[in-house]
Each structure stands twice: as structure tokens, then as C-alpha cells.
């Protein structure tokens, strides 16, 4: 007997849960009279929270402040934060190193046979002639308000992307739960027929054997054998537990954020009950339905890995 096809349920308009994806990206910019800041935040899956901070020279000391902002938003995942700071240099920020310049003039003058002194503009590009602003001397604490503004903007975009992906995850997880529930309903309807079918087949085989051998079998023996089969193939408890797990899975999604680990655990329990139903089924139709349930569970396991 093949799988009974059920008419797909139309997707109801629903209040999407507040679950969020662990993956995301966000970029923010801010500037002041002295600096221009670009902040990038990106994240990939991780069972725990790991924050990697990279910045321009002179701003590595801001890592504790950066981590504090990220931890307010992320609970799991590998989060990489890149902060680029460009200083808006003015003419007063550059200084001629007179000693180095005179040294170049003297050495080149000695090399020139005519004794002609090289033009100064030709020497300005030589190493050490012009002192540029030292990035290590940047006042990171003084620049922090501008950096924080850029980082908060990046985190806002990062959070929005994760929520958007979380909405898609919630819909997909819910749809796969529906597939499992519909197949489980078919299993529940089919289960009582399995024992009846076994009893009928057993009676037919016994009748054929008795006719050949010319012996009799007590009806109690048949009843005992059917009862033993019914007990061995009984899946009523597994069906009840799996229904409970499905409802718990759905309610966990509805509760919102930071439920990824709990969803993983519930999915494991759903898989355990499904495997038991498949091993005890002794029926082709139920086995086919179990295959569909396992396929949906595998999709759930893959998607749950993305939930924070």
C-alpha cells in the first residue's frame, strides 16, 4: 500500500517568531572632524560565542568595549568585527625632517661632479624626509565615541539581517513540523490495521498448514500469538511522545530568541521516536511514512544549526 497523499495545508498568516539566525553581516560608518570610521560585523555558525576583533593600528586597546557591544546582541556564533579608522590629516600634521633632508643634499652633492645641489622637490619623496602622522599615537579613547557610533550602526544592520533570516528559518522549521505531523497522523490511523492484517494472514497460513498436516490448533494459541505481535509492534507510546515533541518544538520557536540549543535537543528526541516507530512498524505503508518523517527531520537538523 502506498503513502496516502494529503492535501498540503495553506500557509496561514502567522506572527513570525523572534528567533534569529547566527549568520549575518552589517556595515556602519561615522566620522568627525579628525577621523572617518568604517565598521563591519559578520558572523558564522558556532556552538558558542567567539568574537574576533581587528582594527587599524592604535585602536587594538578598544577590544573590551567592542566585545561588550557585541555581547549585547549575539549569544552564539563566531563574530568577526573589523574597524578601519582613517585620520583626516591636515598640512600641520606633516613635518619636514630637516636633518634627513640636508643629509640627502650633502650626499647627492658629493656625487654630482658639477657640485650642483639637487632640487628640494625631487628629495621630498625619499624615505624619512617627511614625517607622517603616527597611527600608534592615536588617542583611541578620545576617538571611541565616533567608533562606537559606526559600530552600533553596523550592529543594527547585522541584527536586522539575522532577524530576517530567522523569520525564514521559523517558516521552514514550521513547515517541516507540519510534514512530520501529517505523516504521523497517517501512521496513527494505520497502526490498528497492522494487527488486524497480521491476524488475518496468520489465520490463513495456519489454515493452509493444518489442511496439509491434518492437525488442529487451539484458538487460544492463535490469540496468544496475535497478542504477542500486537505488544511487540505497539507504537502508541511513541506516537504520543512524538506528538508532544512536535508541539514543544513549535512552542519553543514561538517563544523567541536563543532557543537554538533547545531546538537541537528536541529534534534529537523526535528522531529517536521516529526511529523506534520505523523499527516496530512491520508495515510497508508506515515504513514509507517514516521515511518522509526522517527526511523532514534531516531538514530540521540542518536548519536548526543556523538558529542562535
From TrEMBL:
<keyword id="KW-0540">Nuclease</keyword>
<dbReference type="InterPro" id="IPR005229">
    <property type="entry name" value="YicC/YloC-like"/>
</dbReference>
<dbReference type="GO" id="GO:0004521">
    <property type="term" value="F:RNA endonuclease activity"/>
</dbReference>
<dbReference type="InterPro" id="IPR013527">
    <property type="entry name" value="YicC-like_N"/>
</dbReference>
<feature type="domain" description="Endoribonuclease YicC-like N-terminal">
    <location>
        <begin position="19"/>
        <end position="170"/>
    </location>
</feature>
<dbReference type="GO" id="GO:0016787">
    <property type="term" value="F:hydrolase activity"/>
</dbReference>
<comment type="similarity">
    <text>Belongs to the YicC/YloC family.</text>
</comment>
<protein>
    <recommendedName>
        <fullName>YicC-like family, N-terminal region</fullName>
    </recommendedName>
</protein>
<dbReference type="InterPro" id="IPR013551">
    <property type="entry name" value="YicC-like_C"/>
</dbReference>
<keyword id="KW-0378">Hydrolase</keyword>
<dbReference type="Pfam" id="PF03755">
    <property type="entry name" value="YicC-like_N"/>
</dbReference>
<dbReference type="Pfam" id="PF08340">
    <property type="entry name" value="YicC-like_C"/>
</dbReference>
<keyword id="KW-0255">Endonuclease</keyword>
<feature type="domain" description="Endoribonuclease YicC-like C-terminal">
    <location>
        <begin position="187"/>
        <end position="308"/>
    </location>
</feature>
Amino acid at each position: 500500500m502506498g503513502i496516502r497523499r494529503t492535501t498540503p495545508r495553506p500557509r496561514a498568516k502567522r506572527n513570525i517568531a523572534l528567533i534569529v539566525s547566527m549568520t549575518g553581516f552589517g556595515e556602519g560608518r561615522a566620522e568627525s572632524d579628525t577621523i572617518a570610521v568604517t565598521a563591519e560585523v559578520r558572523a558564522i555558525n558556532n556552538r558558542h560565542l567567539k568574537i574576533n576583533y581587528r582594527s587599524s593600528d592604535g585602536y587594538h586597546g578598544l577590544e573590551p568595549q567592542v566585545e561588550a557591544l557585541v555581547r549585547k546582541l549575539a549569544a552564539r556564533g563566531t563574530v568577526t568585527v573589523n574597524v578601519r579608522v582613517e585620520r583626516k590629516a591636515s598640512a600641520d600634521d606633516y613635518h619636514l625632517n630637516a636633518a634627513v633632508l640636508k643629509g640627502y643634499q650633502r650626499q647627492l652633492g658629493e656625487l654630482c661632479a658639477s657640485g650642483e645641489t639637487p632640487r628640494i622637490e625631487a628629495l621630498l619623496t625619499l624615505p624619512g624626509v617627511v614625517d607622517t602622522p603616527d597611527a600608534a599615537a592615536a588617542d583611541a579613547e578620545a576617538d571611541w565615541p565616533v567608533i562606537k557610533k559606526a559600530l552600533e550602526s553596523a550592529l543594527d544592520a547585522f541584527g536586522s539581517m539575522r532577524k530576517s533570516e530567522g523569520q525564514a528559518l521559523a517558516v521552514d522549521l514550521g513547515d517541516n513540523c507540519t510534514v512530520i505531523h501529517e505523516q504521523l497522523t497517517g501512521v496513527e490511523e494505520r497502526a490498528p490495521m497492522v494487527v488486524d492484517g497480521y491476524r488475518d494472514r496468520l489465520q490463513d497460513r495456519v489454515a493452509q498448514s493444518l489442511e496439509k498436516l491434518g492437525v488442529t490448533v487451539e484458538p487460544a494459541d492463535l490469540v496468544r500469538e496475535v497478542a504477542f505481535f500486537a505488544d511487540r509492534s505497539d507504537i502508541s507510546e511513541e506516537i504520543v511522545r512524538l506528538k508532544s515533541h512536535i508541539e514543544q518544538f513549535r512552542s519553543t520557536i514561538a517563544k523567541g530568541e536563543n532557543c537554538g540549543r533547545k531546538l537541537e535537543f528536541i529534534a534529537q528526541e523526535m528522531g529517536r521516536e521516529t526511529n523506534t516507530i520505523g523499527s516496530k512498524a512491520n508495515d510497508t505503508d508506515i515504513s514509507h511514512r517514516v521515511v518522509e518523517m526522517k527526511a523532514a527531520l534531516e531538514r530540521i537538523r540542518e536548519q536548526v544549526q543556523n538558529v542562535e
